[in-house]
């Protein structure tokens, strides 16, 4: 009977310790979530050029190749998303030299539909309102006020790197969003 107060004291301390520990375990992710964006770079679009393939895979004389532009990691203040499809581009070799290669956004500059390649006519067609663009991206006909937007490319160790740029729609000149 003499040790009852000690046991009560011990149980009280043990309960407090267990409760405190459990509280910390629960609170830790919440604290991390609140503090996580602090000091981190906020990125809403990739600044780094994205790898779109072996440059040798794009050959002169072939129709343009459509490639999906996928960001491996896209991060804003609160979320991180992986393998985000940003859009698509048409890649075309313009000469025999590896550097003679160009990329056009597959987003129609009129109202943003996806532009396709019309093999029979050898030019690009937007199915929404029938804008047509030459193989070099120049506007041929239809309501679009400008040609297909050019995208920056570079070749690094035989790989084609493309920097994705989204442009404003319905303008006569290419203006990044
Ligand atoms: S969205 Fe392409 S022609 Fe209108």
What is the topology?
Elements: H1 4-35, E1 50-54, E2 65-75, E3 80-93, E4 101-105, E5 116-118, E6 123-125, E7 132-133, E8 139-141, E9 150-151, E10 153-156, E11 159-162
Antiparallel strand pairs: 1-11, 2-3, 3-4, 4-9, 5-6, 6-7, 7-8, 10-11
Residues 108, 110-113, 126, 128-129, 131, 142-144 line the site of FE2/S2 (inorganic) cluster (FES).
Task: Note the main attributes of this structure.
177 residues, alpha+beta, Rieske Iron-sulfur Protein, 2 domains, 18% helix
Report on this model:
With 177 residues, the chain is an alpha+beta fold. The chain folds into two domains: 35 residues; 113 residues, Rieske Iron-sulfur Protein. Helices cover 18% and strands 32% of the residues. The chain has one helix and eleven strands; from the N terminus they run αβββββββββββ. The strands form three sheets. It has a four-stranded antiparallel sheet, with no helix packed on it. Strands 5-6-7-8 form a four-stranded antiparallel sheet, with no helix packed on it. A three-stranded antiparallel sheet has the order 1-11-10, with no helix packed on it. A hairpin with a 4-residue loop joins strand 5 and strand 6. The N and C termini lie far apart (79 Å). About 8% of the residues have low confidence. The structure holds FE2/S2 (inorganic) cluster (FES). The site of FE2/S2 (inorganic) cluster has 12 residues, from loops.
